[in-house]
Structure formats: C-alpha cells, structure tokens
C-alpha cells in the first residue's frame, strides 16, 4: 500500500490521491503516522432497491450465468455512498482518518440491500510532526 502523503499547504486531514476527504483504511494502524486522538465508532449506511423490471432482468440473466452488471453497479454505488456518509460523520467529530474500516451487507425483505461502512474515527499526524 502506498503511504498517503500530504502535499505542502494541504490541510492535515487531506491526503494526496484519496477519493474521500479523509483517509479511510482497513488497517488498525497506519505506518508512518501516529494516532493522537480517538473519537470512536462511526458509520455510514445506505439502503437501496432496484426497480421491478431490473430485478426480473437480473433473474433471467442469473439463469443463463454470468455477471449481473446492474446489480454489481448498484452495490458499488452503495459502497461509495456509505463511505461518503462515514467520512462526513467522522469529519463532524474532527477526525482526519477512519481506521479498522469494515463493510456489512444485508438483504431486507428480499427487495433491498443495506450497505453499512463502519470503523474508528481518529486524528493522525505523521511521525515527523511530533
């Protein structure tokens, strides 16, 4: 994994090359960085369903085999939405990173998918800034 690098003049919570406004990592610690404050658990949640015709089309595709591209896109979009909401909640606490990031997925009444992203909101600084 490439270590996130801050660019000169960048806010301490912004990392180069990140898709989200704060660092999100599945690791429990971050090499080259020190956790100086722990804010606690944060999560982002979304529940989505597909329209009836889309679901029927996916059912026919499933009989033939192969990737269900519409469902893959729905789940991918849902993950990104959940991560965006997780980032917003963490930033509201003053965090600049979320560590130990995990996902949980559930089906609700066979009509919708719930995607939850959760982790620990923290504030990290590079070891050199101590």
UniProtKB/TrEMBL annotation:
InterPro entries: UPF0145_dom_sf (IPR035439), UPF0145_YbjQ-like (IPR002765). PANTHER family: UPF0145 PROTEIN SCO3412, UPF0145 PROTEIN YBJQ. Pfam families: YbjQ_1. This is UPF0145 protein ACFPK1_29685. Gene3D superfamilies: Hypothetical protein apc22750. Chain B. Belongs to the UPF0145 family.
